[in-house]
Amino acid sequence: MPPPDRRTFLASAAVSVTLWPSGSAATGKIDPALTARPEVAQKLAALKPNSAALLGTADVVGEFNDTAKKYDLHKTGPKGRDFTIKMCWAADRERAMFCGANHGVPHRLNDVWEFDLPSLTWAMLYAPDLPRGYMDLGKDTSDVVFKDGLLVTQRGGPAVIAHTWWGLTYDPTHKALLFMNTWVTDRKKAVKDLGGNPDDLDHGPPLWAFFPADKKWKAFKAEKPYPVAIFGGLLEYIPELGGSIWHANNWQMHGTWLHDFQKNTWKDLKANGGGKAFEKAAAEPEQIGYYDPKRKMLVVQRHHDTHHYDPVKNEWAKVLSGTQSDGQSPFGHDARSVFYHDPHSGHGLLVQFSTEKQEKANTLWAYNPDKLEWKKLTPEGDPMPTGGKRLAYVDPKANVLVVIDGVKVWAYRYS
User: Fold this and answer.
1) 82 is in which domain, residue-wise?
2) Cβ-based burial of 137 (10 A; exposed 0-12, middle 13-18, buried ≥19)
3) pLDDT single digits (tens) 64-87
4) Residue 86 to residues 21, 261, 289, 333, 409: CA-CA distances in angstroms?
5) Among candidates 219, 207, 215, which has minimal Cα distance to 146?
6) CA gyration radius for the chain?
7) Positive or negative CA dihedral for 133, 360, 164, 301?
8) pLDDT, tens digit, for every residue of 148-205?
């Protein structure tokens, strides 16, 4: 028996909760299994275009260890973490995934989470190992080992944990969350303190994968050639390329590289032929963006400029140049805004949480890639939460943008 159409599902909420467990598309194999809330389905079904609603307070579930409880994660969920606010939709799980560290306060943790909208639940998939310091492994390194050139925890997680910036993506082919885990940790000193030889350190890009089905981390150790793992780069899975691109355009690295998951190899795509042509057209760090599978292109906002990347032509283009005062372009920044594809409309939705001056902006924008046009939105209904630790993602199954303020959940339907 196939699952019902999404609108049928929402319109008959009471029946759908009984028939279809959340997140599993009727297979019941997603762990943890979660039960959809009828009141959430009813609120989603009632949403009209350009309207929003507070859906309620999320539950928080998981096997919480002492580290998680120390920071009240069992009560608050993960929350936004400074330059770590990107969430990635996992279509096979029908949930949005999240990981990454704060700048240092109140913690630096390697935990992994997913959010399930129908049940309104934060599920912790990987409980954090011991907390880490800003430039070191923290006060307690008893759970860290130096193995095969890498600093890992005894449970197999990354002992060095970074911001995600926009260096986080979901690979639907391998069902893995990919994370370019670049941080300032003094690895040589850490290895020496653990009794290891710093000369044995691996110097390749610190790409990690997390497999939600197995609840396990895996590190990639690549052979040269490979890209520079800068701060604030962009990692995005591109179906047409059969892998994920790692992109940067600043003094540290000018290039768009492709990673082959199966072979664990990197290839410099030499977009725009490289050189000045690439530097002029490609987005610089701090960018945010999404892949549009229909138009087969990457759409990126970097500060007030808008860029497109065509993976077939292997070309970047700066399609719009804006300013802070023009009132026609939002501020794209990986610590202050998020930008996701809305497959129902084909447009991009950008939530600007703050401005260049760290003032609260709390604005919502839509981008039409065909007209090369931005539009500031004024949603009807409940106002967006205004907390300082918010997260957001687009749920394509429910056709809503979701903003999460701790455990307070708000949804907006664009079209």
Assistant:
1) 56-413
2) buried
3) 999 999 999 999 999 999 999 999
4) 26, 21, 10, 11, 16
5) 219
6) 21
7) negative
8) 999 999 999 999 999 999 999 999 999 999 999 999 999 999 999 999 999 999 999 9
For residue 24, what pLDDT is reported? 42
Partners of 237 in the β-ladder: 244
What is the count of structural domains for the chain?
1
Chain segment 222-276, per-residue pLDDT in tens: 999 999 999 999 999 999 999 999 999 999 999 999 999 999 999 999 999 999 9
Structure tokens at 135: 């430039």
**Which amino acid, one-letter code, is at 156?**
G
CATH of the domain at 301: 2.120.10.80
The pLDDT value recorded for residue 28 is 52
Q: How many whole angstroms separate alpha carbon 55 and alpha carbon 78?
A: 18
Amino acid residing at 11: A
> Is 169 within a domain?
yes
Q: Which residues contact 70 (CB under 8 A, 6 or more apart)?
A: 131
Element (H, E) at 51: strand 51-57
Cis geometry, peptide bond prior to residue 2 (ω within 30 degrees of 0): no
CB neighbours (10 Å) of residue 328?
Answer: 14
Q: Answer yes or no: are the C-beta atoms of 227 and 257 closer than 8 Å.
A: yes
In a domain, 324, yes or no: yes
Which phi and psi angles does 22 have, rounded to 5°? Answer: -60, 135
Query: How far apart, in whole angstroms, are the C-alpha atoms of residue 256 and residue 276?
Result: 14
Tell me how far apart the alpha carbons of residues 67 and 131 are, in angstroms, rounded to a whole number.
7
Mean pLDDT of the chain: 93
Nearest to 33 by CA among 113, 109, 142, 116: 116
21 lies in some domain: no
Residue 23 domain-assigned (yes or no): no
CB-CB contact of 113 with 98 (8 Å)? yes
Residue 268's Cβ-side half-sphere holds a number of Cα atoms within 13 Å equal to 15
SS3 70: helix
Q: Which of 28, 89, 78, 25 is nearest to 290 (CA)?
A: 89
Taking Cα atoms as reference points, which of 245, 222, 242 lies closest to residue 233?
245
E strand spans, 144-296:
144-147, 150-153, 168-171, 176-180, 207-211, 216-219, 234-238, 243-249, 254-260, 265-268, 288-292
C-beta neighbour count of 113 within 10 angstroms: 23
d(CA 115, CA 162): 21
